[in-house]
Here is the input.
Amino acid sequence: MSASTTKTKNAFTTSGLTKTYGSGETAVHALRGVDLELPAGELVVLLGASGSGKSTLLNILGGLDHASEGSAHFFDEELTSMSDHQLTLYRRHQVGFVFQFYNLMPSLTALENVELVTEISNDPLDPGEALKLVGLEDRANHFPAQLSGGEQQRVAIARAVAKRPTVLFCDEPTGALDSKTGRTVLGVLQDVNINLGTTVLIITHAAATADMADRTIHFSDGGIRKVIINKSKLSAEQIEW
Amino acid sequence: MSGNWETKYSMTPLDRKLVRDLWRMKGQAIAISVVIALGVMLLIMMDGLVNSLEETKQAYYQRYRLADIFAPVKRAPDHLLAEIARIPGVSSVEGRVNGSALINLPEIKTPLRAQTVSQPDIGTPRLNDIYLAAGRRINPNHKNEILLLEGFAKVHGLEPGDKLSATMNGSRRSFQIVGLAQSPEFLFSAPPGEFMPDDARFAVIWMSKSALAATYDMNGAFNEALLSVSRGSKLSEILARVDRILSSSGGIGAYALRDHTSNRFIQEEINGLKLSSRGVPPLFLTVAAFLLNIVVSRMLQSEREQIGLLKAFGYSSFEIGVHYFKFIQTIAIGGALLGCILGILSGRSLLVVYQTYYKFPFLLFQVDSATFLIGIVISVLSASAGGIFVLRQVFALTPATAMRPPAPADYSHSANLNNSLKFLLDQPTRMVIRQLTRQPLRAVGAIVGISAGMALSVGMLSVLSSFDRTLDLNFNIIDRSDLTVSFNNTLSDKILFELKSIDGVIEVEPFRNVAAIMRNGFEVYRGGVNGLVELPRLNRAVDKNLESIRITNGGIILGAGLAKTLNIKTNDILTVDVREGRRPLLHVPVVGVAETLIGSPAYMHLSTLNRSLGEPGRISGAHLRIDSSKSPAIYKTIKNLPSVAGVSVKKQAREAFKKIIDSGAGAIRYIMAAIAGIITFGIVYNSARIAFAERARDLASLRVIGFTKNETAFVLLAELAIITLISLPVGSILGYYLSFAISRGFSTDLYQIPAIFSPQNFGFATIAVLAAAAVSGWLVKRDISTIDLVSSLKTRE
Here is the structure.
């Protein structure tokens, strides 16, 4: 699998992607036939109300969940036909995740949390470098309990990018943070996108985040309502929160 | 009206939460309840058995007027009975004639031994009456009427109305069975010289005194006096006075009921049960308390938001505390009630087993109602002890802190892994080690619990193998004969030539048994001295290394148990008060201690013993080695020898012993070993479940990052594996010491339970623990495979 991030290629292509939970009258249609093309190297923001389907899409693209119908491709690989083990390897080598509640291992220090990932990756960043990227080189030997929420989220980002992922998925990365800290975290994500060329997908409720994206996708009722391509991106510091 | 009813009788929301919480956590709740139930079950079962055996024994003794004192004598004239009755404190006296007989059943080749006991010619016995199970009592005018021991009759299909042929004092006679009987003095009745009851090979025949006296030349005389004493009288004084009265008639030494063999066997059993019922149930309840502690602690952690919410609504800490307390007590009381039911059921079925070797005419399983109460109360108390410390957390939480997600668990004070160690350990291994060292008490608790379970298993298995050891030592190493012949009276050793001349007899070895009282300071033992040839080959005394001990001319060799009872060691001088012949009082040095597990033998050189008695060349029996192909003819010849009182076939004695071990006495020990396995499983499974619940989110994160299922399972299961592996040596060491405690607790001078350390026992217990751990691990690993990655990550905690 090529990790190249040529702008001309699509990182993700979906066609008729459908996800249904349950069956019969109680069936919940989380995704109703989504057709989408996401060029590699972009910073993409997914907006929409709760239950609009954005998290479901991210979970399927991230290899955490299976689609009910339709297909999803990561470059030329068909994600929707992969086995559990293939999905594990896909997550291990191509994907980084950042979550609302950080999901750090409480029993490992900041540095060790990063090392957790670099140990199983093929061509990782130096764990110290990764922490430097998020400005936490001084906190390397602290346990999560000794870090603030923003610091924990930056460790989570360092952990996610340390494997040099092709794509970084962020589900409400600033949801549990105050605006100042949130802006710092978004800044880090933007840096990763620009400096490492990583494709970044961010789910958020904060509509203003769209101002720093290459592309904003609006979700409602399990489908894409509109896609806006942003020609004049702002930096994270410039965003009105 | 209906609204009132609903508010009055419908459940409060908290109670509904309680019911649903219990349902959600049913696996763990049941596992803990079962551990409590097992503890209570054992308590109820063993206490009930003690209660039933003791009460029934007492009632049986009382109803059939079992004597307080037994005074065997060679031959005493009846008028001495009146003299005995005049001793202050004696309330009634009965003189009777006992003897031995060989029963000839046409279909049985080997001679069957019987004890004959007289019944008074007029009325029922004042003491040691019989329980008539079938038929009628003897008509003293019909000299050939007998009552037969019920157990023996049943095995051989004999009924009232049947004929029975028996050889008494050398002459063969035919008797009419008129009834089947049992008696409290034969509650536990092993064939003479053996230690396990065997209904098929031992009988008691009751017949009228006049008929029996004629047979044994005891007209106007008795050879056993039975006494009952009034409450509060001094037994030792009465015993001494009886001995004085009977000394000139060949009194062997009066003894009290507590020294009566049958009574002692049952009393030892009751004492053993008492000991177990005090020692074992607390172990289960402690384990349950520990499990409740970690389960409730985990529950409070995961429900802190709900607790905060309840407090925000205005529920008091106390009300919320009560809610969780109810959760704990539902598990405890549920377990205790289940334990009560299981205790009654298992007690009842064990009682049936007991009845096969303790012959009670009636035996009801009765538990003292206080025991149920104790079972429930200590379950509640130990569960409370497990939960109460955790409940402090409820009081400490303020609504605001409870509503915020908790900070990540603080590991900054856990294992300080230095750099060299870090170099060796990958991240998942560091997680495992920090997890263990962060909550060392919990890890230690789990280790102690598993070790205790394993120790119990090792201890019980040791007891089981000690039976095999007893069997082997007694029937293969010490006794190498095929047959043991005993005579009615002592005979001249010329009989040996007669025995040796029987076709098929390979080897003959004489012995002489004399009744004696052995004293060392204040320690007294009433038993017998065994006269043996200098280097016996068929029935030996062996030392610790199982080498033959030479029976020297000038000393006495004591069985290990007896030496302990008498608190005497080699080279000390023992006083032997011989109660037969001219009754010499001997002071002999202890020259050796013999390894023995059954009985309390004391060995002296045959000719030394005879010389001290002034009866040279007399023997009371012989051990024989025979050609097994000729055994039927040999049995037949020996059966017809006039002087033979009994023949014991070793093979049959061993089989009887083995049968009892396998079916009866062994049963309870197998149950204990199985229970020890369950306790291990309970702990390992609960620890694994909780570890999984606590770390579900971490594990999901690892899966998301790209760890495979097996790599993820390692983080959880390695911790379990480490705890299990540490428990193995700890459990082995605890088991080693527990074996000693058990063997000490159960050993008496009737039999010794050795502590046996066979590698198999440790191996078996290790396999049991590993199997329990593996099954628990497998159950939890299944959950890792089905873990919902998405929802685990959404849960904030």
